[in-house]
Design a protein that fits this description.
The complex is a heterodimer.
Chain A (H helix, E strand, L loop, with lengths): L1 E5 L9 H14 L2 E4 L21 H12 L4 E4 L2 H16 L1 H10 L11 E4 H9 L1 H7 L8 E4 L21 H8 L3 E2 L13 H4 L1 H17 L4 E4 L2 H13 L12 E3 H8 L17 H6 L6
Parallel strand pairs in A: 1-2, 1-3, 3-4, 5-6, 5-7, 7-8
Helix pairs in contact in A: 1-11, 2-3, 3-4, 5-6, 9-10
Chain B lengths: L20 H9 L11 H5 L10 H9 L10 H4 L5 H5 L6 H13 L13 H6 L2 H11 L2
Helix pairs in contact in B: 1-6
The chains are: A alpha/beta, B mainly alpha.
Chain lengths: ~290, ~140
Amino acid sequence: MKLLYYPGCTLKTSAKNLEKSAFAIMDALGHEMVEMEDWNCCGVVASLTDDDLMHHLAPLRNLIHVEDQGEDRVITLCDMCCNTLKQTNLRVKEIPDDLETLNAFMDRENDYKGTVRVIHFLEFLRDEIGFDVLKKMVKNPLKGMKTMPYYGCMLLRPREVSIDDAEEPTILSELLTVLGAEVVDNPFKIECCGSYHTIEEKNLVSNRAYRITKFAIDRGSDAIVLSCPLCQFNLDVRGKEAEKIYNSYKQVPVYYYTQLIAVALGLDPKCCRFDDHAVDPTLLLKKKGVFEK
Amino acid sequence: MNKDLEGNIDINALKLKEGELVQEVEDLCGENLFSCYQCGTCSAGCPFIEDMDLAPDEVIRYVILDKKEVLNSKTIWLCASCYTCAERCPRDLNLTKIMEALRQIILRKNIDQTDLRKIPKDEREKIPQLAFVSLFRKNVG
């Protein structure tokens, strides 16, 4: 199966580890993921005022280009891109007048016909591959790893674009169970990590990372697993910085779910780019014997 | 319910008409603020409540009462649009959009909340791009 992929800015820069590991998984599954041509930034956050159509242009242009390339679906790895593309897609389908205005404004592009489905890679693995298929492919089960799934906001809210239940999601814990890991549940799993405040309110985000991680540690968890590149930075880097604020606090490693799938399937660990992390993720994998098996 | 709010925007310079704040907000976000019955669910679930000067339900009350100093609250800038309040509101009010409307009232007068030059160079190189794009979208008009 050939699938079109929309990367977004961060996957090409600070989240190469997410992109490379996802591509390695697709290879192992025997599917081809192709980066779409001529994509642009999605705008990251969805337009929230009713009269503001301008900020729907960037996501819409991407959807038009998916249609231009003859596809009716596009896969995203970044939660924020996925959310923004889905929200624009929803708005132009619900309000045809808005679509007409946007189409008229972008007179150099083809009109958007509304045929594209935006799919998060996690959704793709669950709904089109099936976690049971992944289970059969596991070579290095993540035995003894006590992982805390962390969803954040953009996978789940608003409800209309959610990939799972908005209050009690299970997709990551189902995945981790299939990979052989133990799952530690946690009420903070759906709470905001601090998002873009990481630029101007570093300490506030460090506090968020501390609160989220500390709860997990107290319940015996030794790793956090997530999907969003901004959550990853905030929990990993700002969480590491929280060690200076809170005595005897030690940040646990923060993995992308794609990295743990790659490790469990026995793929070349180079695709995980573990060097890019603030807290070394390889120590735990070695300690639990996942790497040696 | 008069609180000291730390923002330094000259509210008079915004030239908002007397008694029309709620209308202006409703025009921008399409929500009916009067349907709020002040249960506080939004504030109970807000991850940033501890750092806010006004609780999210108080923001709605301020707007309804035309207390324009709400535009000087830290709260409207701390809201990172995580949609938790909107998801949980028993009156199905989208407070996430109300917060954005309040930010937009200020940003559309060309008053930016972020000075890009003040972001240190090493941070600029370290922080992921998507954080910058969202900060600019939220804080710069």
